[in-house]
Amino acid sequence: MREGSLYVDLSSSSADLIRRIAAEFATRGARVMDAPLIVGRRGIANRSVQVLASGGAESYNEVKPLLDAFSDTVVYTGELGTGTVIKLAHNLVRRGIGLAIGEGLVLGAKAGVDPELLWDCMHWGLDVQLKQMKKHFADTVFTGNYDAPASFGIGLSRKDVGLATDLGRQLDVPMPIAALVEQMMIHAISRGWSEQSTASLFRLQEEAAGVEVRKR
Questions:
Q1: DSSP H/E element including 34
Q2: Residue 105 dihedral angles phi and psi, to the nearest 5°
Q3: Nearest partner of 11 among 44, 51, 69, judged by Cα
Q4: Which of 49, 119, 125, 162 could form a disulfide with 71 if both were Cys (CB 3.0 to 4.6 A apart)?
Q5: Residues with Cβ < 8 Å from 15, sequence gap 6 or more?
Q6: What band does 41 get if pLDDT is binned at 50, 70 and 90?
Q7: What is the radius of gyration, based on Cα positions, of the chain?
Q8: How many CB atoms lie within 10 A of CB 181?
Q9: What are the Cα distances from residue 86, in Å, to 22, 75, 82, 134?
Q10: What are the backbone dihedrals phi and psi of residue 19, each rounded to the nearest 5 degrees, phi first?
């Protein structure tokens, strides 16, 4: 690595690793950025790619035209390693959602429902939910305003989740994710949050980790 050169890492690794690489390269007068990719369904061939670039702002401005050449979206995430953290968190959530969807589809299929019809209905509901969640996070999680009553609170949601897990037990369908969701809802209800929105469940994770997720 020559002095004055810029190394851009597009791989998925760890934030600690890219920072160690940056420290080593700095001794040689070289700079480092991490720029992991979130690849869409059709991937790089169709430029369905989001690049999460982090590192020095000057380095980012230097390399951005190159990143733009093969990606749909380039996001500058700030300090070195933050791009990698976002990529890992994103992939974790995607896999978790996939497993939860799998539980629901298998439950419905074993109960005799047409799985394609179930997925069509589920997909519609998920689209609506994602749009609502964007507002919920802005109004609730990022502001810490958890106490506002909701039109469909945790208590009612827990009833539906409980009915689903009951059905799973009747049909011998393993549902570990649903069981965890139900237990967290029971915990929230025991805290007196029954009338609050399900966004309040996020507070349990904040408390467990000792961090508050607020808008900066």
A1: strand 31-34
A2: -65, -45
A3: 51
A4: 49
A5: 34, 81, 82, 84, 85
A6: low
A7: 22
A8: 20
A9: 19, 11, 6, 17
A10: -75, -35
Mean pLDDT over residues 133-149, rounded? 86
Element (H, E) at 131: helix 115-136
Distances (CA, A) of 174 to 53, 96, 101, 171: 40, 15, 13, 9
Q: What is the distance between the alpha carbons of residues 37 and 59, in angstroms, rounded to a whole number?
A: 18
How many CB atoms are closer than 10 A to CB 68? 13
Backbone angles phi, psi at 215, to 5 degrees: -65, 135
Residue 89 DSSP one-character state: H
**What mean pLDDT value characterizes the chain?**
92
CA–CA dist 131, 111 (Å, integer): 29
pTM, two decimals, is 0.87
Both tokens of 7, joined, read 């190394």
Instruction: Please give the Cα distance from 160 to 157 (Å, whole number).
Output: 5
Helices (H) and strands (E) in the chain, counts: 7, 5
Only one residue has tokens 């299929």, namely 109
In the predicted structure, residue 195 carries a pLDDT above the cut 90:
yes
Q: Which tops the pLDDT comparison, 135 or 91?
A: 91
DSSP string for 53-64? EES-HHHHHHHH
